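User: Toll-like receptor 21, Xyrichtys novacula:
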Amino acid sequence: MGSLTHWLLSVTVSLIAIELIRGYSFKNCIENQFSYGKVFQCINRKDKNISAFVDDLPPSATKLIISDNFLTHVPNKSFVHLPNLQDLRMDNDRLRTIDKLAFQNLHLLKSLNLSLNYLSKLDPSLFQDLDSLAVLMLSNNRLKQLPGDIFFTLRNLTTLVLRQNFLTQFSRIADSVANLRHLKLLDLCSNNLTSLSHSNVSLPTSLTRLYLCKNNLSTLGCTHSFLGFVQLLDLSYNPRLSTAAFQGVNLSRVNYLRLRSTNVKILEFLNISNVNARHVDFSGTQLKDEKLLMELCKLLKKSVWIKNMSLSSNEIKNLSRDALRHCPDIRGGLDLSYNELKNTSCLIFLNRQKHLKAFNADHNHLTSLPPCKNHTIIRNVEDITYRYNKIMYVSPYAFINTPNIKTLQLNINKIVYLDVKALKGLQSLETLRLDNNFLTELYNSTFEDQVKLKTLNLRNNRIDVIFNMTFHSLKNLIILDLGGNKITHIKPSGLYGLESLSKFYLDGNRLKNIDSSLYHAFQDTLTVLDLHGNQIRYLKEHERSPFMNLSKLKDLKLDAQQPYGLTVIPLKFFRGLSSLESLYFSSNKIHQLPPDVFDDLKSLKFLTMTDCCVGVTQLQPGLFKNQKNLTTLIAESMVIQDFSKAVFGNLTQLRKLQLNRNGMESIPVDALESMPKLRYLDVRNVPLTCTCANSLLQNWTINKPSVQVVYLYSLPCPNEPKHRFHNFDTKVCYIDLGEYLFLSTAVVVFLFTITPLLYVNLYWNMKYSYYVFRSWFSEQWRRIRDEEENCKYDAFISYNSSDEQWVMDQLMPNLEGSGSPFKLCLHHRDFELGRDIVDNIVSAVYGSRKTICVVSRSFLKSEWCSLEIQLASYRLFDEHRDVLLLVFLEPISERLLSSYHRMRKVMLKKTYLQWPDSDCTDPSQAQELFWNQLRKAMRTRSRAETAESNERHGAVVPGSMDTKGCETQITDENYYLQP
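Assistant: Predicted structure for Toll-like receptor 21:
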């Protein structure tokens, strides 16, 4: 009974919670949206057992990130059920030990990151199953040495990162990588290597990038050809490494060599080494003396040209006109960053560099940029950067001698004043960065020559007003960034001329309203408008939409207005934004969200409303009725109390829904089912009650393989900290329904089983019962019983139409003939026309003192005759009334009568009359006796009496005929007398 009830309970729940979509979750991981079971992130979780992270992940996983956790141990076969894994990150997890079979079955793994852990040793067989591994990262651990054959099976390894460990023996490293024929990059920076001495092994010929920075190398100690195939060699920050270490080492294939912060004398090195000088990075090589720099250029003169020349971190303080005179042609860039330059002298030292493209003077001590009007024109320079200096003032014509600049970076300085002619002559400029300075004003002639400018960044200055015609020449400007200033308003023509503007950033300013007239200049071009963190606020609902002319806008940020937020949203506030796809609306403390606020945003795909409202505990029905294209909705920290289909029911394309930190205690399943495309649901920090109100939601969340419910197994029961939402007991919610369904099912099964039997065996009983009930319901029987003493007829004659001749010729004349006191009821004569035949039969049976059944073979085959005898026998047996008389017109065998149970019962309890056969010795005498007995039987009272009572009243007992049908015998034991 119990198991069946539980089965029915589960069936019931399934029937009640029918969905087309189903949800799922992982204990410690989140599946990346739209990755379809392939990419998972398990970051900053509290579990310390690796099985708690991976056991519930599907075999389809290809990328797994387990970072910033408290794992210390990885046991054997931890990932054996993830055979398709290709990328595994376990960085910053505090790992100390990894069992040798931990990565068993990961034959498809291509990248393994074990950085930022506490690994001090590795088992030689640890990577034996990683046949496809291409990238292995073991940086920031505590490795002191490597087993000789640890990488033997990694035949496809291309990148090996071992930086920031405690490795000391390079020979063992060389032995372990010697057979890696596809290895291209080996990173050994920040270890304790003192030399590159090795046994007779060679590095793989495929190895082209070798990083040995930040070690304690004092000598290379390797054979002549050991580094013969290396193309990038980083030996920087080895302060003990001297020039002599390179004696006899083949560096002919190196095309990038770093010797920063070593003890190598660069000029001496170039004389003894076979390295190509133009492939050396001269940063940090103590070339602070201009004389040394000139000697270097003479050595480089052996090459007709060099691509790039890096002279950063050399403590260079000044460069004269002839400093680079002897250098070969520099066709790429010149890097003078991280020096001590205080003046670039209008780049006069570049006067002989006819093909230089880029100049970098970042991180120097420049305080101003002087005028360069009368200096030599440097035509080929296209990129100049002065970032991270202390420039306060930019003089007029500061760049007049570099007219072909396309990118100018003056950001992250202290520029207070930018002369109106500072940028004069820069007609080819496309990108200008002036962000993170102290500019307070811009003038209408500041950018008048920058007709080709596409990107202008003025972020994080102190500009408070945009004056008229400030940007009037910038017809090709695409990106304008004015964020992080103190702009309070923009003059009516302040944005005039911005005919191509696509992205406009005004975030972090002090704008108090949005004036649509400002945007007429770019109404057909603007796609991004950022107004985050201003002071925009509305106090009344009836305001004209400020976005009427921005029909092309796709991205709008209105979040975090200070200090009070928008407060009120005017009617039709977003009218005109027919193309908007992303709306940022968070942190605005709005008092009310009208149901039509988003009606005009029919193209919206992304909406964030986190902490947007104050006191709006219930969203209005129809709020998202037009957002049929919305795919991401972030509604966190809104204190929403009610989540309903009326509000969220139209989000048919929604794929990601974040409801963190809200107040709803239950979520109706039908509201979730109305989002057929939903794939990601986040309800963390929502106080969902563990009660029957959420029983369907619990079933929905744990049995749905299409919707990811973030960290479902960690969701607590608010009033029961030890229990979790996913497994609280819901049996009590369905127990009554389960029992009811059990009983109903049992009754249905019983009826389906017993009905055929009843039909075969009790067909007439059931049919009779139906008629009895029908007549009883109409209260006819009650009325007839009350009138029994004054019956209308003495006898109702029940016969078949085939026996009608006998009834008319014999029965009627003898019982209703002249002088006879009896009145008979015949159906063809006395039934009421138009009345239901059943009602006529019931009235006839109960309106007559007796019922005479004229039995023949035809009678037995008639349904209506059977009904009539059933009704009469009911009165005989159930009401104890002697009302039934049987008259057999012909002999009928026992075998034929055996199937008529009710008639057999009557014959066993009561004698019957049989019409005399025609072959009797004296038929007339037998017939006369027959009629006398029938008349006497009709005179008996209907109430059953004893035989003695009948005899006292002179009643004659009818009997049955003998086998010849000529003599009458009285059989008292067969005569029905009811005591």
